[in-house]
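Residues pack. Consider this:
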Amino acid sequence: MTSRLTRRGFLAAPFALLAAPPATAAPFKRVVVVLRENHSFDNYFSGFPGADGQSTDPLCADNVADPPHNRKAALAGPSVPRPDGMDSGRCHYAPSQLPRYWQWAREFTLCDRYFGELLAPSVPNYFALMGARPPVLDNLSGRLRGRFDQISLLDRLNAQGIGWRNYDDGIPLVSMFQAAQQPDRVVPVSRFFAEAAAGQLPSVSWLTPSLADSEHPPHGVSRGEAWTDRVVTALRASPHWAETAVFIVWDEWGGFNDHVAPPHAGDEGASPVRLGYRVPCLVMGGRARQGHVSHTQYSHASIVAISWRSTTRLSASGRRAPLLRWRGQRARSVGISLDRVLSAAARKIASGWPKCSSSRSSRALPICGIRFKLTKASKSFITFLEASC
C-alpha cells in the first residue's frame, strides 16, 4: 500500500513512533545490506522466468553512458534522452552479461515489486534506505561524509547498544550521517573479508563500494558484479551464513527504462514523491526462500524495518524500542518466507495475540501469510506488524 503523503506533506511530516507486539527472537541474527547503484528491474532482469521483467530495447554496453536520473528526469521518465540526444537508458542486459545475479536470482529470492523509496536520484534514496527523512529530493554537491545530523536507524541501533558496521570504499550511504562518525564504525571493505571468515560480523552490516565498483554508469556492470561476487563468496563461506539475511539492493533506477509505473498516492498530483521506479532486490542467506520470485510490493523502508525487527530485543515491559518512520508509511519486510522466519513456537505465540473489539476488529488483514484482526486503538501496532513480518 502506498503512502498518502503529498510532496509538501512528506517533507514536513514528523516521524511517528512504532510500538512492537510481543515476539520471540528472529530466526536469523544478522542483516547484511549490499548496496549497488542505478539500474532498473527491467534493465537487469528482463525475461527472468516467473518475474515481471520485459524489454524490447536493445542490449546495453557493459559501460553504457550515464542516463539522466535527477529529480526532473524522474518526473519525466523513466527514461529521457541525454543532452547529447542519446537515449542511453533504453537498453537492457542479457543474462550472459550478469551471470552471477541471474544465478543468485534462480537460487534464492528475487523481488520484482521492489521500488525505490523516492522518485528521485541517489542521495534522497540513501536517506530512505537508512530510515531517515530526506532533506532534499535531488543530489547534493560537495563532501557528504559526516554532513547530516538527521536521526536514522544508526541512532536507534546506537541507543540500544546493537553492533553495526559500514564496510565502505566510498559510497556515502552510511558515512554521510554524523551518527556514523564513531571509532570502528566505518571501515574499509577489505576488513569485511577477514571478519566474515572469522565469524566476527556485527548484527547489521552495510557494504558500500567505490563508485567504480558500484555499477553506476559509465562504470562497467561486469566489474561491479565481480565485486559483489567476492562479497557473496565470503559470506557463503562464513560461519554466519546460516543465520544471516543478505539483501543486495540498488539505490535507484538510474534513468533506465522500466515498464511498471511506480504506485503513487492519488493526491500527489503532478509531482509525486513516493514511490520511485522499480529496482532489483535479491534476498539471500541460509534462511532465504530458494528459487522464488516475490511479487509483493516492497521499498527501501522494508529493509529498514527488517533490520530493526531482527536485531533488537524486547524490554522488560514487552515492547521494542521505537523506530522512526514516515507518517502513513507501511513497509513490508522483504522476501523471507514465513515458514523460515517464524519457528513453530513463534507462530503459536503470534496466533495467540489478542483480537480486541473495535470498529476495525472485524477487518482481518493478511500479514506475511497470517490473518490478524486489528484494532483502531493500536494504529502503530498495526503498522509495525505490516512493517516487520
In short: Residues 1-26, 314-330, 335-389 have pLDDT under 50 and may be disordered. The longest strand covers residues 30-36. The chain has one domain: 7-345.
